[in-house]
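quick q for whoever's on today - can somebody do inverse folding on this one?? i tried earlier but teh output was garbage lol. tokens:
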């Protein structure tokens, strides 16, 4: 762990991005549930300045803004799981929380931290992809606070790497309010359901009307350098009757379009087979419950 030269704790979003612009080399601290273990293990080195963003009110809260649910970057997993807007409109995120580490980690870990950590196996990332999420990024432009939006699939570059600029801060995640008939499922597979890092994860969503699935989104985690969208699996499902033949074809498409590696958690062959089997199981559950 590198010795720090400076510690700052801004109290507004504008102040935070101004300091990011001025100081350049800054490590961001929110919940610390990823940063501190990685720093203690020597995998992350603190930069010259540590910025604690927990005092910034604009990064908190969960609100509905028009046709979107805005989740502040500092919202903890526990807050997300219990918030009435999430429970009403985005119950998939409640399910995800049940698979997210321990209750102690859920109480401290933030959504913004999980997104910016950009782990290929990040528990919230696959569900956010199938919910159509985008990130709200804040910076200074012409001496004014500037916000831009980016679809989540474009945000991830590689393991631990995102398109976040050095003087930019993730302010929030925005998710469209799902349409009528929307269904969504998430499955994470590991040795233990919550405490382990995923060997694979799958998210599937769409609008189900009279047995036909449309507006399909599919995403996979822990099968590539970033969470990935399943374009071939989406094509196998889009506009199709969710019958046995469609489900079988989608499961094969899912298995064939992922290209995982072998590591200590699973072999590439095992991951592909799990993707096939879990895709089939998820779709059968959707079909049987509607």
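ok took a stab at it. sequence:
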């Amino acid at each position: 762990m590198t010795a720090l030269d400076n510690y700052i704790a801004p109290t507004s979003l504008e102040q935070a991005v101004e300091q990011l612009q001025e100081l350049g080399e800054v490590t961001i601290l929110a919940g610390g549930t990823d940063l501190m273990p990685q720093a203690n293990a020597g995998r992350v080195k603190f930069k010259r300045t540590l910025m604690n963003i927990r005092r910034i009110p604009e990064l908190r809260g969960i609100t509905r803004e028009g046709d979107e649910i805005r989740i502040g970057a500092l919202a903890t997993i526990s807050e997300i799981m219990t918030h009435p807007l999430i429970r009403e409109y985005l119950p998939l995120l409640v399910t995800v929380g049940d698979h997210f580490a321990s209750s102690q980690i859920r109480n401290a870990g933030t959504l913004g931290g999980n997104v910016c950590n950009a782990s290929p196996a990040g528990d919230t990332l696959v569900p956010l992809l199938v919910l159509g999420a985008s990130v709200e990024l804040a910076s200074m432009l012409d001496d004014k606070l500037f916000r831009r939006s980016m679809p989540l699939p474009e945000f991830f570059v590689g393991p631990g790497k995102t398109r976040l600029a050095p003087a930019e801060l993730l302010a929030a995640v925005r998710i469209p309010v799902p349409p009528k008939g929307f269904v969504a499922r998430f499955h994470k597979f590991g040795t233990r359901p919550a405490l382990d890092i995923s060997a694979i994860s799958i998210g599937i969503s769409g609008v189900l009307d009279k047995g036909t699935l449309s507006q399909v989104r599919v995403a996979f985690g822990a099968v590539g350098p970033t969470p990935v969208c399943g374009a071939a699996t989406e094509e196998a499902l889009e506009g199709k009757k969710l019958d046995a033949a469609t489900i079988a074809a989608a499961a094969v498409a899912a298995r064939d379009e992922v290209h995982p590696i072998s590591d200590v958690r699973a072999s590439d062959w095992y991951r592909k087979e799990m993707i096939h089997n879990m895709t089939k199981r998820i779709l059968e559950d959707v079909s049987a419950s509607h």
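fwiw The chain has a mean pLDDT of 92. also Residues 6-52 form one domain. so keep that in mind when u check it
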